[in-house]
Every structure is written in structure tokens, then in C-alpha cells.
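I'd like us to work through together how a protein chain folds, taking it slowly. We need material for that, and I hope you will provide a protein of your own picking. Go ahead whenever you are ready, and we will take it from there:
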Amino acid sequence: MQITQGQRLPLASIGISDRLTMAVNIQSQQVIDIACFGLDAQSKLSDDRFMIFFNQTSSPADAIKLLAPGEFEISLSALPATIDRLVFTAAIDGAGAMKDIGTSRFTISSKGSAPAAACEFSGGTFTVEKAIMVADIYRKGGEWRLQVNLQGFSEGMGALVRHFGGEVNDDPAPASPVPAAPPPVQATFSLEKKIAAQAPALISLAKKAQISLEKNNLTAVKAKLGFVLDASGSMNGQYSRGRVQEVLNRLIPLAAAFDDDAEIDVFAFGAKPTQLSPATLSNYTNYIDTDHGGWRKWDVGQRINDEPKAMRMVMDYYSQSDDKTPVYIIFISDGGVHQNREITKLMIEASSRPFFWQLVGLGGHGYGILERLDDMAGRVVDNCSFFAMDDLHDLTEEALYDKLMEEFPAWLKEAKSKGIIG
């Protein structure tokens, strides 16, 4: 199977279950150091025994072994539970940049078998980068998956080590007196570059989302993103005018920033809730009019709104595991909310779980308890925020991102301090 930048797939789909070989072959006049970083759930090198390179050729239990330059043998079952991600990297030792490399490729295969998947790349993918993350193998939903990364840094291997939270032993010692600390190493890739390969139409939105994420110090946050849609009859105008699709379009860049698979879990509700297909970079276009037959055919029962049933479905879905990854839930409603007691009880229950609820009123009135949840007592943490707009076009895209990110950072800090999120 030929795979390309940005592509993700389960290893099981290419016949790999445990033992595999990853081989990275880069054609270059420069010396290229190939390494594998074994990272924890926060994408940090918390145990440097799992950085495998020419100077350390195996990890504990031989879970990762460097067989030859650029060729790694992996035993997934031998990896400890603390290792969630393997990042295969390449860095130039000396002068030069990745734009100068020739036709290169990496392959992945079951041990002793022919390659099951291959990705070709060249210097045309890069500009000034001296180090790149070639590919990731990571856990998601109880399975191992592969991601084609091909994103880079303007500095070399040291920048990679520092990016993953490690220390570079050969960094020069500071002079006396100690000067001010240097600015942190900045990755040259951005949210814009991350989605450009699959969804170029979203590049403008990605730039605006990136600015808001940077302002709120959220660029390193990993979270799941849920989107809950009022599909009652009074919302018909919002759907038919394309407003709901526009909201989804603006959320996809956030999904790409927060989630490795750039997925949004989507739910809709009328008299009863239903779960739809995940929205992704590959299917977001016309999602509202096409998924499950389009919004007019969604299985939501009578076109009346029952928010508590939808909230319960969402909470039960994300409570299936003990995962402490934050879940950012965007709940769209045009009002007519009246089940105040039931909603209050649910939000109190949810406050001890890793769920943040961003409630958004869209073109309606009578939002009831949704407007007051932000000040509600009895919760472990403040897990809700609300804002309303008569029309999506009342807010610029930049202002919408700022609204969506307004209270999420404070919840992350408080939820982490109380052990609700990891």
C-alpha cells in the first residue's frame, strides 16, 4: 500500500499485530541520523531508555531495537503501558537542510515479511528543516495506528530531544553570570501545514485557529472533540442555510490541533439522540447534508429537543474507558430548553469527569438553564461555558475561535489540579 503525508491507518488493516520492522531510507549527501523516540501519553520522553539511536541501540525488553542505520525492529506487546507513541525521526548531522535530500522512503512490515505499506518523499516536501518527524506509531482506542508525519524543525537532533522533553548533554554550559534563558525551540510546522495535505480549503481557518490557540497557550494540548447538534424542527433554517455546516467547518481545524486523528465525534438529537459518523479532514465537506443520509433523515425521533437524553448519551460514550484525556464538547442549541432540573443534575455529575461543555446558542431564545450553568454551585470544577449569537455570521472567524477558547484553559488547569484529567 502506498501511503502519503497526513494519512493515518490502523496497523491491523495492513496485517500487522505485534512484531514489525520500520525502515527509513533517506538519500542524502549529508550524514542523516535516524532515531526512534518512545513517548508517554503527554508526548514526552519520560524515560530516556526509550530513545533508540546509534548510541543506544535497544530499549528495555528489546521492545525497540536498531538493527541497522534507519532500520528498527519493534515488539508492540513488549512496550510498557507508559509508552503511547513511537516517533521515528531523521536529523542532519552538520550543514544542510532537508530540502536537499533525494528520493526517499520509509516502509513498515511484519517481521520477516515484505513491506505492507510504503511512503515516498523528497526534498520538495521541506524548506529549511534540519530535522523531521517521519512517522508515528501510536495507541488510540485500544489499537495501534500509523501516521505519516513528515513535519520538521529548523534545528537538528537537539531540537527534537528538547521538543520531546529530553535533555541534550552536549549543550554548552552557561557562562558566569548565568545569562537569561534562551527562548524555547520552536517547531517550524504549524496547524496550517498539518491540514494542508488533506484539506487545503481549510488553510485560512487553520491560520486563524492557530492564532487563538497560541494566545491561550493551547498548542500542545491533546483532547477529544465532541459536537452535539440540536436537530429539532426549529433548527431547520440553520441547517438549510448551511449555518450548521459552517460551524463544523470551523471546528475541523481545532480537531486537527487537539486530536491525532483530527476527528470530531458527532451526535444529534431531537426527541432522542443518535451518534453520527466521526467528522474528519477527508469527509467534512457537505457532511451535514450527506452523513447518515443527511440531516433531514437523521434518526432523532420527533423534531422536539430533549437535551438531557443527548447529554447522557455523550457522557456514557466517553465514560466507556477510564481514559483521562480531556473531552471538549461543543453543544449547539437554538433554545426552548425547559428540563432545568435534569440538566443541572447531569452537569454536576459530569463535573467530576474529564468533560468540558461549551454550550452555544444559535439563532434562538429561551436557553434557560444553559445560560446559568456557568454559575451553578455544587460542581467539583466549573465545567461549562455559554455564549449565544443570532447568526453565525455575527462573529468573525477569529472572534468565534476566541469565544470557544475563552474558558477551556481555566478548566484544564483546575481539572488537572484535581486529578480529573491526566
